[in-house]
Amino acid sequence: MSARSALAAKTIRATVERVVTRVNTLSAGGPGWTRPSYSDLESAAHTMIEEEALALGLAVSRDAAGNLFALLKGRNPQAIPLYAGSHLDTVAEGGAYDGQAGVAGALALAAALRAEDHTPEADLVITVTRAEESVWFPVSYVGSRAALGRLAREEMEAKRVDTQRSLAAHMRDQGFDPEAVANLVPPPPARFLEFHIEQGPVLHMAGEPYGIVTAIRGGLRYRSARVNGVWAHSGAAPYDGRADAVVAFSELVMAMDRVWAEKLAEGADLTVTFGRVDATSPAHAMAKVAGTLGFCLDMRSSDASTLDEADGRFRAEIARIEAARPGICFELGQQSRSQPAHLSAAMAGFIAGGAEARGVSPRRMLSGGGHDAAAFAAAGWDSVMVFIRNWNGSHCPDEGMDLEDLALAVESVHEAIRLEGRL
Amino acid sequence: MSARSALAAKTIRATVERVVTRVNTLSAGGPGWTRPSYSDLESAAHTMIEEEALALGLAVSRDAAGNLFALLKGRNPQAIPLYAGSHLDTVAEGGAYDGQAGVAGALALAAALRAEDHTPEADLVITVTRAEESVWFPVSYVGSRAALGRLAREEMEAKRVDTQRSLAAHMRDQGFDPEAVANLVPPPPARFLEFHIEQGPVLHMAGEPYGIVTAIRGGLRYRSARVNGVWAHSGAAPYDGRADAVVAFSELVMAMDRVWAEKLAEGADLTVTFGRVDATSPAHAMAKVAGTLGFCLDMRSSDASTLDEADGRFRAEIARIEAARPGICFELGQQSRSQPAHLSAAMAGFIAGGAEARGVSPRRMLSGGGHDAAAFAAAGWDSVMVFIRNWNGSHCPDEGMDLEDLALAVESVHEAIRLEGRL
């Protein structure tokens, strides 16, 4: 190993470790990490990255929605810029790596180039988005879509699920300008790269440190659905006359479990998840048949038509259950969707080239979770993701990632950037 | 109609209306009525009944647990006293009649006897129990069992589900003496009568104002059961590897729904209710497979062996689901039980005799809900209930009862009391 590459390797490892550690000092408490979208905690995390970027001598800017950009100028103004980054908000009681790892990896690229005093061919723009986790505001990819000029004015009125205040209000609280977001002129389409922990077990099971993502599943969601029945006494209401919201919901869950299995058997790509169930109001009690139950449903697929079909089956199962159970009535509320995103084959090749130069052939794989890269792809950017092995699930306090796996992935991209000038 | 019976009829109607109206001025707010067990609101309701009893010239006393007794002395000290009453606590967001109607009916009996200046053969003891609704403390019939010397010292340590403070502490807050309850000497077994709204639709469907209850279903409960799975990402965790707490719970609900239908087909008496379901922690989210879900189960039957069989099937279904779904593990927590109670045929005949004298033949029927009368029956008292027609379910804000139906039932019991002296 040359002194140059030894220095880059060391810088990459020091940077990812320091950035992940620093950001993870910020949490609202409870198990795991909680940094809501457009919260003071998310803003503080952005400030940390700004400090890191300034220490590397990068030129820092923010857009009207509070997305952070840190520019390492390339030598060829004609080369298409490479934006690299991720987000720093988390779900409630999330993990140590979802988002953070991608920001740390991007910053490590810049740090390695700086350490060896290498000016890349194209501009490298460290990109830290806002509000990627749609559990807070019922809107997908708020920050990245705002940066891309694709966040509609009415989406600003979405309410944060816990505070019931609007996205615009929370944006303003953090010092940003929702009015200006609507008129934001996005940068010309360029290239986008996102390191991220895998949210499933594929790489872990295969014993591989990282992989290249070629597509991102889209989602179809009912965030605040409800089934209403008829309150009754648990010991006195007979079997036949009941309209029990818990039983009707359970029948729907099992029906959709069968729909999912059938779709998989047909070779379709699909996930079906009822992640939140609420029959806990003051009126709910052991001695009462539940008259209402709230729930949410999240279905995902790499194929939009599969989502349509699954939604059709979902509505058909509801109609069947309502017909069979007088007094039962479902209210689905608003549906939200994100489109499946096919990532860039050219960018996959770019990453693979760097890996190949280091003697490895990372697998091509699918992303189950939605990511900012999907928003960039939808806006016509050449986008790609690099997944890092994770052995403990995602969106949970136990997310498991080895920083060394991330460092290996960063080294391959670093190699790809260095090669770019020579092609 | 004689002037005497006209006066009694008028007094009964005025009393039930006034008592129900007065008690229902007391509520913690929200839809319906909320008077927790051993709360200031329950105590205030007891004080109202004390005022009513004192106005009738009855001798009022309270036992160490705060149960209220108001004595109308009979003419024959050898005759077995008739205790009549019910409770004044409610479930959260309960109705206008559950408990109240029974106290109002009992007081109306005394008021009618007083109005016509009739001294009954036996002592009439208006009885207002404490803490009948076991949704607050996970203990059945707290007040009546305390009055009967059957509340165990360790049951005093049960925690109120919302405050997490003990029954003993709440009892003390209301000025009573949990230590003395353990040593309480109960009155000699006598007769107990409870008017109560029916908690199912039987009388309403039949178009009958009241009926005589011959047995009370017992209950088998898991008040704080839980199913644990494995948290995962909704879009990335594959079908086969999931341990989804919501799906496992739903499978259990549907399995127990089938068990219930099978038991009914066998001619057994059973109800099965999952009344509360909680997958709403900060960790639960639309984008996560639920790693845990809390629930409660209430099964009731007039036959204790049916409850045992249903519990066996419940545990077998859980074992089957755990075996089929690696990572799924149920924690049932403590089981609580109340025994089915067979009420007194002699007391049913006593009530029927009064009704017959008024030209009516009320039906004999089963109680689905547990009631204080079950505790008196278990202690060897000759107990009976009179159910009043109700058309809107029970334990809910919409409980529907016509005060005229209650008045008709009270008139029949009043007639039975008047006849008693002459037999």
UniProtKB/TrEMBL annotation, chains A, B:
<protein>
    <submittedName>
        <fullName>Hydantoinase/carbamoylase family amidase</fullName>
        <ecNumber>3.5.-.-</ecNumber>
    </submittedName>
</protein>
<comment type="similarity">
    <text>Belongs to the peptidase M20 family.</text>
</comment>
<keyword id="KW-0378">Hydrolase</keyword>
<dbReference type="GO" id="GO:0016787">
    <property type="term" value="F:hydrolase activity"/>
</dbReference>
<dbReference type="InterPro" id="IPR036264">
    <property type="entry name" value="Bact_exopeptidase_dim_dom"/>
</dbReference>
<dbReference type="InterPro" id="IPR010158">
    <property type="entry name" value="Amidase_Cbmase"/>
</dbReference>
<dbReference type="InterPro" id="IPR002933">
    <property type="entry name" value="Peptidase_M20"/>
</dbReference>
<dbReference type="Pfam" id="PF01546">
    <property type="entry name" value="Peptidase_M20"/>
</dbReference>
